[in-house]
Amino acid sequence: MPTKNYSVTMSNPVIPFYQPSDKLLVCSKDCYQYDTEGKRYLDFDSGVWCTNLGHSNDRIIRVISDQVMFSIHQGYRFRNKAAEQLSLELLDILGMTGGQSVFLSSGSEAVNLAITLAKRFTGRTKMLKMELSYLSAFGHGQIADSNTDLLTVPMNNQEALMAIDFAQIAAFVFEPGTSFGMVHFPSGEFIGEIVRKCRDNSVLLVADEVTCGFGRTGKWFGFQHYNFIPDMVVTGKALGNGYPVSAVSITAEMAKLFEQNPFRYAQSHQNDPLGCAIGLEVIHTIQDEDLILKANETGEYFRNKLEQLQIKYPEKVKDIRSRGMMLALELLPEINGELINNELFEQGFIVGFRNNVLRFMPPLNLQQKDIDLMIDSLDSLLTA
Ligand SMILES: Cc1ncc(COP(=O)(O)O)c(C=O)c1O
Residue 341 and residue 101: Cα distance in Å, rounded? Predict the structure, then answer.
């Protein structure tokens, strides 16, 4: 296990905006993370749903080593080949050939920029999202009482949809499957209806693919489970496989609108060549290693295993939800899920947990034997 030495003190000098676990991790490699004692944890959360290729993937290490020799950062005033090539290839897999992209660092920045574009293109201020969706840590997409421009519709609720005045909305920001919301997917019928209303009322469609993108749901992008092409797509997280790079991609039609009504937007790390070189390697690795197919096959195997637990423990397991390698097992309210999740961690498995739901979003190249290990532990914890 390779490690790096830092002088760490007992008290934590990092601001605890988020309640951190006491566990100090020192190495992350492939599907595993390691603590200071060398104990290994199978990471079913891919960090924060970022490492679709596994932590410190060898191809990503190589492309970082190569790219840093030429350029990490050069300033957004200059064109660079990595950004232009990534934009072309990203637009191709999005089905938006002929459009344009810009590259930033985090998903939140990209969501905010897409919303800014939507507001300018439509002259409207309201946005619509589905309940349970998470869009941004700050700004236009932040879930906050003060953000009165962000309207919410409950998922799959046609009646609530009827009450919304689409004529005042700039864009529907669509998260095709929610990680923060513990793995829920909207029905094709519901999304079909929203898309129809958006198109009838000149409301733009923005797909937030920050967590569903790059094979997570068994297709390149989560919106591809539905029958439409968005006007804009936001990507992040897995685009950099753990390195902070995000993107806003727009169709050729939106690019024309921007040309007619341009505005200045600049961030220090906009279109940085290092992030873009990594993004390209992520796309090529998914292609070369057939990881979309693999996500479907392994996801089906995983779902089967979870369903067997549901059959075995009907008095404990309430629901199984999944699409590709985005899975959840919901426990009945009377079961102490927190205890089960803590025990899983003690036994070496990092699993997402909230509202009595165990969430699994592991690297797409996870092996079946690793799923078996976690399922065996979960089985014995459910027996107890
Ligand atoms: C769907 C979705 N969009 C946007 C974001 C924001 O991305 P970031 O945390 O990189 O700013 C997240 C983060 O979890 C997310 O899940």
Answer: 40
The best mutation among 210, 267, 269, 354 to test binding of ligand 1, ranked by most ligand atoms within 8 Å of the C-beta, falls on 210
In this structure, are 65 and 212 located in the same domain? yes
Instruction: Please write the tens of the pLDDT for every residue from 346-363.
Output: 999 999 999 999 999 999
315 CB contacts (<8 Å, ≥6 apart)? 332
Entry pTM: 0.97
Q: 222-255: per-residue pLDDT in tens? A: 999 999 999 999 999 999 999 999 999 999 999 9
Specify whether 131 is located in the same domain as 205: yes
Cα 234-240-244 angle, rounded to 5 deg: 80
Is the Cβ atom of 135 under 6 angstroms away from ligand 1?
A: yes
Looking at the fold, whether 282 and 300 belong to one and the same domain comes out as no
Question: Ligand 1, atom 3: nearest CA belongs to which residue?
Answer: 135
Question: What contacts 162, CB < 8 A, 6 or more positions away?
Answer: none
Q: Ligand 1: does its nearest atom lie under 6 Å from the Cβ of 191?
A: no
